[in-house]
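Quick entry, no commentary yet.
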Amino acid sequence: MKRIGILISGRGSNMLALADAVKHGRIPNAEIALVISNIETAAGLERARELGIPTFVHSHKGCTREEHDRAMAAELRQAGVDLVCLAGYMRLLSPWFIREFEHRILNIHPSVLPSFPGLDAQKQALEYGVKFSGCTVHLVDEELDHGPIVKQSVVPVLPGDTTEMLSARILAEEHQTYIEAVALILSGQFHIEGRRIIES
């Protein structure tokens, strides 16, 4: 049984999608072992508790990035986590943490990377005038929104779209794409060639 740790900072909608997929076997032979947040009031924490998932809160205030990450890593190791999933976690991870869980951290970003990394990707897409946007699940490395790409999905940008409208359409794709990516990585049926994830 593979064990997943999820890091959140807010509502945790992708966390809930992953939990539902685990429950219904769409991510086979897995369980959500722990949900961690750096924000005590993150709405996703209560949702996780309602589902019976253990939670841990550790504020990033008053400590260095690495000190904060070492505290999270200790909890993840104690929970026997095999894969760390970022689900709306709004902090950069320290190089130490990334090395500690090398090739075992996934992130989902609301654009088709390498376009529009960083914050407000949907707003960036609308301002740039692209015809398509979407989402990307990638392995995390030490650069922002950069690691090898596991899965991508594309959505059209429609005339009259607002940031909220585009975000909602991308989010629906995020839930499905993240599930597929997590299932693939936990299956081990892939290898990495440079920046490419090759399914076996």
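second:
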Amino acid sequence: MNSMLTKLVIIIGSIGAASSAIFVRASTTTSAVLALYRMIISTLILTPMALTAHRDEVRGLKKDEILLSVIGGFAFGIQVILYFESVKLTSVASAAILTETEVFFVALFEVLWQKQKLPRWQVISILIAFVGIVIIALGDSGQNSFKGDLVALGCAVCCACYTLIGKRCRQNMSTTVFTWIAYFFAGVAMLIVALVQRTQIVGLGMRNILLAVGMTICVSLLGHSLFNWGLKYERASFVSTIKMMGPVFAAILAFLFMGEIPSIQTVIGGIVITAGVAISMRFNEAKKTGNSPAKENPA
């Protein structure tokens, strides 16, 4: 697989995932129910493919692969719910920004749990992107921003768990099968939350159904599914670094569709984040082609 093409696909996934806030703001139901319908539709779309084109793979799944996929699905389901709640409590930019601190948890887990060594260039690129995150966060003045920020950080932890599990599973599982199992159990997690909250899950109206369909296409299939695909070819921390472009895309989409004018801090922070991601992509490519950055000592 061409390395630059892989990166382009992951970036497209970042744009798709960033569009979720648009659908949340436009809905008239709770985030848990909207997310539940999105997972139901996604699972229905993937089921025929998983049971036909990947029938032999499904039959040959090992117990540990199924268990990890189930755990990843629950983590993903909680992640989505927490993100939606944070969007309702703070600005789209801040919710997206703090969620993207996932990269720090992923990097930490890679070092402590998987005993991997992060190259110095990747540490530098992550830190540069984090500076951009801080700049944007300083421009947030939402009344409920503190509570929304805490919720978004919880989302980041769940997102990191899902990314790392996805990286492990994608070594032997196809994108379709892993995503199919994960989305199904993400839906189960969302259903449990909806039932606990005693939220109405039927009779939502055509508006919310269409929004759920839009989220399925844009956020699930053209967003998170592309992240799952990319995990087979790139390390988890690199994919998470690309995800940090999400706040930039979220701010752009919020301006285009909701009229949210980004502050000067958001613009400057977006430029800094983009620079950090560009550095990560440049040195990651150089490492694969055997240029000098590959010989650099890990941090």
